[in-house]
Design brief:
Shape: globular
Strand order of the largest sheet: 6-5-4-3-9-10
Structural class: alpha+beta
Helix content: 25-40%
Number of helices: 12
Radius of gyration: 23 Å
Largest sheet: 6 strands, antiparallel
Strand content: 5-15%
Distance between the termini: 59 Å
Length: 473
């Protein structure tokens, strides 16, 4: 009974922390002072964003601090919301969320503005069960501000209640609400955190050269020049594609190759290698591995970046579905980066279901499974438990490629192919610089420590830009 009575007060306290922390970084002292961790003597972090002096060391140990830290399913860790890791994540989440409004009308490395980038990227994403593309709510600052201030607590409350029902009371509503609202560990929140860090970093550093790799043709061209094994492309100036039965000038298409100044990258189709094929159904698409790397060389782009400054954080095997054109429709199997063992699988497809009919009861799941898929559903093919061949070589390839191609970019998502081509058994398809983990696991402490160091540097640069009245172009 005591827990029921105290629940509204706990939820209200968490909600107040969210608003206070958000406005601290949006308009308050956090906006106009250096970003410094609580351990720094000059830190201005308010008490409600600091871990308690008597931090729960048992919870900290359970959370894996100093060992292999969790990156998702935080609710399974007892008293996680009392750990320093939780508070560190909270500060970074709120700081970057507030920073999105600073970035809103400023130039973006791949669009005219940050606003244009989020409108485009949110066009096919919806909060599960709503069917409404999030792009509808970010067309201007007031709308986006309203989304943050209203949807965040509402969605967090629904998520906490949903988990409590799903686990039959095993989860804590107040704990899950705090995690969802203050230190969210779902794929969407990590994706947006990475995007905001990338947008801020590129802006304040006058868009370093490494961001050019977002252009697929520049990536292939530069990779070829320096010996990075990128996916092969044809050097012919153009191709003509004809339908075999059309006539009268119909059914004929001309494509000018990027090698000759055109907009199209013309390649032969790449086929899955034997190891990949044995885990897929018939007529599955090219199925890649998404590997995320971070570069400490991006913290200070004026310094030389060494290979050891780059770390592979996570790896996910995207096992494509039968008859799907690409592996964007896939089962996401987590891969242990230390051993190469394929772990459980899941999806994030419920975030891409649009249309008001998705609001109907039972139509769209609120959340997907928590990595409990062991077999590919199209054919009941066993996947979990297999070992990715030469995982260390794959990770070393992306780490060295990050250092060679874009050491001045903080986080990079690599699409790695294990192909059937004996001459090029492993190649890099493309890179994503505003990347998401596709629900892969990673050492959260390593990741958050890196982002904290990035925030310290970027906030210092932002304060200098404010003082100088810098105009970004």
């Amino acid at each position: 009974m005591g827990q029921v009575i105290s629940l509204p007060f706990k939820l209200a306290s968490t909600t107040l922390t969210f608003y206070r922390g958000f406005f601290h970084y949006l308009l308050g002292q956090g906006r106009n002072s250096p970003y410094l961790p609580p351990s720094h003597p000059d830190s201005t972090v308010p008490a409600y964003l600091r871990p308690p002096a008597t931090a729960n060391t048992a919870a900290e140990k359970a959370a894996g601090v100093g060992d292999s830290c969790i990156s998702s399913s935080s609710w399974t860790v007892p008293s996680f919301t009392k750990t320093p890791l939780f508070y560190q994540h909270t500060r970074l989440h709120l700081y970057s969320l507030a920073s999105a409004f600073y970035l809103y009308h400023k130039p973006h490395y791949r669009k005219g503005s940050y606003k244009e980038d989020i409108v485009d990227n949110f066009a096919n994403v919806a909060i599960p069960g709503t069917g409404l593309p999030l792009s509808l709510f970010v067309w201007n600052r007031p709308l986006a501000f309203g989304l943050v201030c209203t949807a965040s607590p509402i969605v967090s409350a629904v998520a906490a209640l949903h988990l409590w029902i799903k686990t039959r009371g095993k989860s804590s509503i107040s704990e899950e609400y705090a995690i969802r609202l203050l230190a969210p560990d779902d794929w969407f929140s990590y994706w947006r955190l990475n995007c905001r860090i990338a947008g801020m970093h590129a802006l304040l550093n006058d868009i370093p050269k490494g961001y050019d790799m977002e252009n697929k043709w520049t990536f292939l061209e530069e990779g070829n020049k320096i010996g990075v094994p990128v996916s092969p492309y044809l050097n012919t100036p153009a191709i003509v594609v004809k339908h075999r039965n059309e006539e009268g000038g119909l059914g004929i298409y001309f494509y000018k190759n990027a090698t000759d100044g055109g907009d199209w990258i013309i390649q032969e189709r790449i086929l899955n290698g034997d190891w990949v094929n044995k885990h897929l159904p018939s007529n599955a698409p090219l199925s890649t591995f998404r590997v995320i790397t971070q570069s400490r060389g991006a913290i200070d782009v004026t310094k030389e970046c060494k290979v050891e400054d780059v770390t592979a954080l996570s790896c996910v095997f995207r096992a494509g579905r039968r008859n799907a054109p690409t592996d964007h429709d896939s089962i996401l199997f987590d891969v242990d980066v230390k051993t190469g063992e394929v772990l459980g699988g899941t999806t994030n497809a419920h975030w891409y279901r649009l249309g008001l009919h998705e609001c109907l009861p039972g139509r769209c799941p609120w959340r997907s499974s928590d990595h409990d898929v062991t077999h590919h559903p199209d054919g009941d093919i066993p996947v979990s438990g297999s070992v990715v061949p030469d995982i260390r070589e794959m990770l070393h390839l992306v780490e060295t490629s990050h250092q060679k191609l874009c050491p001045d970019v903080p986080l990079v998502g690599w699409d790695v192919v294990l192909s059937a081509d004996e001459k090029l058994p492993v190649c890099l398809l493309e890179v994503n610089l505003s990347c998401n983990f596709f629900r892969g696991s990673f050492d959260r402490k390593v990741y958050l420590d890196f982002l904290e160091d990035m925030a310290v540097k970027m906030q210092g640069m932002r304060l200098v830009a404010d003082k100088e009245g810098k105009k970004f172009k």
